[in-house]
Amino acid sequence: MQTAIATVSLSGTLEEKLQAIAAAQFKGVEIFENDLLSFNGTPADVHRMIVDLGLETITFQPFRDFEGMPEPQRTKVFDRAERKFDLMQELGCDLLLVCSNVSPHSLGGIDRAAADFHELGERAAQRGIRAGFEALAWGRHINDYRDAWEVVRRANHPSIGLVLDSFHVLVRETPLDAIRSIPKDRIVLVQIADAPLLDMDYLSWSRHYRCFPGQGELAVDAFMEALQATGFDDLLSLEIFNDRFRAGSARGVAVDGQRSLLFMLDQLQRRTQVPVSGLPDLPARAACHGIEFVEFAMDERSAKAFEQTLSGLGFARAGIHRSKEVTRWRQGDINIVVNCDKEGFAHSFNITHGPSVCAMTLRVDDAPATIERAVKLLDQPFRQAVGPGELDIPAVRGLGGSLIYFVDHKSGLDRLWDADFEPVTEGGDFTSVGLTAYDHLSQSMHYEEMLTWLLFYVALLDVQKTPVQNVIDPGGVVQSQVVETDDGAFRLALNASQSRHTQSSRFLTEMFGSGMQHIALATSDIFATVDGLKTNGVEILPIPENYYEDLEARTDLAEEEIERLRASNILYDRDGAAEFFQVYTKTLENGFFFEIVERRGYQGFGVVNAQIRLAAQTRLAPRPTIPRL
To answer: How far apart, in whole angstroms, are the C-alpha atoms of residue 393 and residue 15?
Structure first.
């Protein structure tokens, strides 16, 4: 299939959009009429620019309010069509996208519409032009692709074809079976868009909330399987209206678009075992078996305080890097690396962001194959010099310029602790508090970035996404969405807010960019762990008394159980018989903090407690200084 994208999907000038589309390795572009009208040049100038960039103009769109118009409006729309044909010939484009009529003046009737399209086909054929008919979900008389196809079928003209748009089909929950019987040569264009499931009018839904496949919740996979049954292998294009995309980088959004189509087509081919033409050979999504380590970039001053915190959390020094100022801390299956080296990536990251998480390392089945897939999905690989005998661990750029490393047993990259580190036998300043493993990680990002990183993770790793949760922060609403493996070996929460006053947004300011805001560590006995933390002098986030009084009212927990939770500042949630316990450290430097959790068959993240935690952290946050005038 030939992949393309509509200029309306991106921000910027027409020239900037086209450059971004070419850089993202698209071959085709749909020119949106408003982009052409605002361009300071002729259609011929645009055509030359498109050709110079190695692109092809596949469609000019939209042509509105055409079929079913009474006289004298009918004559006028045909005159308007002739002017568009003139423009298209200058533009070097041979396909006009016609949307179903929404005008209150339009008349219904399949035969009337078919007659109009037959005449349009006759006129178009004289110019070497075609027209495609698309049913808008909010069309006045035609809002179903089946009716649009019937119009095209009855028009019976070789220059008239059908345009299918997944958004218009799926938001109306139109049955997909009829697609399978449409002759593939009568489908002239397929537009792909996903979207979250919302309860709103179709027009507003379409104009503000469309997104790329893999980012939303529509049944795009089922749509593509129905399309594949026709044998269609021609033009597949993205037409996205989204406020986040309009606020983002044109180049970044274009890359996301290409990545989304590659991901969608790869998954289609794997589900159906039917080859997709033009699709590069992609390794399978990486099976992730957990987190090998999280790395912090720090200077010596910050590292001293942070390592004192790690000791209080029960971690002990387990290794010193053979050639760098890097220390490994360990407890259970948890490895934390503190990098104070004065050269290299971590040093630069610390200068830019301050003391913070600069990398995470994931255990996968096949690290080289994971990197190969990442590169083919247009992710950015990363390499830096390594010392003699040290492992060259493959990595890609992650959120906020951080890194994601991949290790595996197959290629021996899981030997990194033996190869790169000298073991340390001395214990920590404090004893273990029973922490066993990473439970989940939490990243905070700009609101406009959230769909980008959601797509990044689900396209590269074999993970599922959970529904978006809206969490109430004292400073606004935070959107939170989790990507996780089926077995829970890897869980990652993505958080973003449009408000500048939420804790998530304040973290972005403190860190000078997006990054990992907190790490949740697992224990099998949270009460014993909290006792150990208290003994070690770790400060726990205090939870209001009112929370426990409410807990007593809404649960059947015994009074002594609630008192035990209260004494340890532990938050509690239940899902049927499954239970969840969570406790937080006070916020450390740069807005970072730790969470300790115990799961008893519970699969969620205690979202019911998020507002309580955020309010408690806000109360303890430093107040902004107001300068005196």
So the answer is: 39
Spatial separation of the C-alpha atoms in residues 78 and 120, rounded to whole Å: 8
**How do residues 372-396 score in pLDDT, each as one tens digit?**
999 999 999 999 888 888 899 999 9
DSSP string for 411-436: TTGGGHHHHHEEE-----SS----EE
pLDDT, tens digit, 9 for 90 and up, residues 582-620: 999 999 988 999 999 999 999 999 999 999 999 999 998
Nearest alpha-carbon partner for 359 in 386, 323, 397: 397
pLDDT at residue 318 is higher than 90: yes
Q: Which two tokens stand for residue 210?
A: 């469309």
Share of the chain above pLDDT 70, in %: 98
**What span, in angstroms and rounded, lies between the C-alpha atoms of 84 and 61?**
10
Strand partners, 108: none
Task: Please say whether the beta carbons of 349 and 455 come within 8 A.
Answer: no
Identify which of 199, 148, 150 has the alpha carbon closest to the alpha carbon of residue 171: 199
DSSP characters over 351-388: HHH-SEEEEEEEEES-HHHHHHHHHHTT--EE-----T
Retrieve residue 357's tokens. 């998480």
**pLDDT > 60? residue 345:** yes
Q: How sure is the predictor about 627, in pLDDT bands with cuts at 50, 70 and 90?
A: very low
Q: Which domains does the chain have, with CATH numbers?
A: 2-272 (3.20.20.150), 288-423 (3.10.180.10), 435-620 (3.10.180.10)
Does 62 sit behind a cis peptide bond, omega within 30 degrees of 0 on the bond before it? yes
- Dihedral angle over CA of 67, 69, 72, 74, nearest 10: 10
Residue 361 tokens read as 């390392």
* Predicted model pTM: 0.94
